[in-house]
Amino acid sequence: MNLFYKNILIFGDNNYLLEKLSNIIDKKDLTQYADFSYACSPQTFFELPLIPKFKFSHIDVKKDIKTLIDKFDLIISAHCKQIFPAELVTKVKCINIHPGFNPYNRGWYPHIFSIINKLSTGATIHEIDQKIDHGSIIIQRQVEIFSYDTSDTVYKRILETELHLFSEVIEKILCNDYQTYIIKEEGNINKKNDFQKMRQIELEKVYSGREIIDLLRALTHGNYQNAYFIDDDNNKIFIRLTLEPEEVVKE
Ligand code: 0FX
Predict the structure, then answer these.
(1) Which of 98, 111, 126, 134 is flagged as catalytic?
(2) Which of 155, 185, 206, 233 shows its CA 20 to 30 Å from the CA of 127?
(3) Residue 224: CB partners within 8 Å, gap ≥ 6?
(4) 104 assigned to some structural domain
């Protein structure tokens, strides 16, 4: 295979995703055609034994920008928590694997906002430009949200979709032989702080049944202490929701 890109960095802060992406690259035997490196942000801690498998390093995009530009001709962001500076995205081809269906709920935790505002969710692989989760789209796929989903059940489906999409297009990306399309709509964007603000349930506020169930299921994700209320003694009480569809027994 004659690859266009030879020095590739897979750069992300999601342990599971990085490991699965490296498995896809290994399984497709792509390492014989190009040099793949893996990195995460300085504040991210990846547990052993994952690290020795990788040519692994911690990278600060602002401090290490010169090295990134000199060393790599393709950077693939896999949930990297740092924003790529304009200089980097103009000098090196940068591609993002994003856990959302652009242009809806771009930014932080797209599916959590989609459970609440009903905008589409899914996975998108796109070229990175100077706006967040914004550049030309290479491939994207919608993921359904069911009435009994919580954040973590939707998120698992999105991760699997991201991996399927990556597996479908990685060779085309490496050969620089792919089409892109631009969506004219700018969509909407959520920041980390929007997520922080939605975590407190106001005890005196009036919610419809649908609103409170959607809010609590959007904030239910494994052991994360997301939703809470403040009780009369000023204690913070965390809330998680269990949703269980009735099992229909066939006669
Ligand atoms: O890897 P990721 O899911 O990705 C996040 C953003 O959603 C994404 O839009 C951005 N491009 C990327 C850089 O960062 O984040 P995570 O691994 O921190 O969390 C995984 C899921 O866990 C998240 O989707 C929701 C849930 N979660 C996470 C934290 C830290 C919570 O519900 N509460 C939390 O406090």
Answers:
(1) 98
(2) 155
(3) none
(4) yes
Query: What is the position in ligand 1's atom list of the atom closest to the CA of 12?
Result: 13
Q: Say if residue 11 is in the same domain as residue 131.
A: yes
pLDDT tens digits for range 197-223 = 999 999 999 999 999 999 999 999 999
Question: Domain check: are 119 and 207 in the same one?
Answer: no
Model-level pTM? 0.95
Q: What is the pLDDT of residue 47?
A: 60
Token reading at 147: 């009435």
Q: Separation of 109 CA from ligand 1 center, angstroms?
A: 6
Are 113 and 204 contained in the same domain? no
Q: What whole-number distance in Å separates Cα of residue 121 and Cα of residue 73?
A: 30
90 and 30 in a single domain? The answer is yes
| Three-state secondary structure call for residue 233 | coil
Are 136 and 53 found together in one domain? Answer: yes
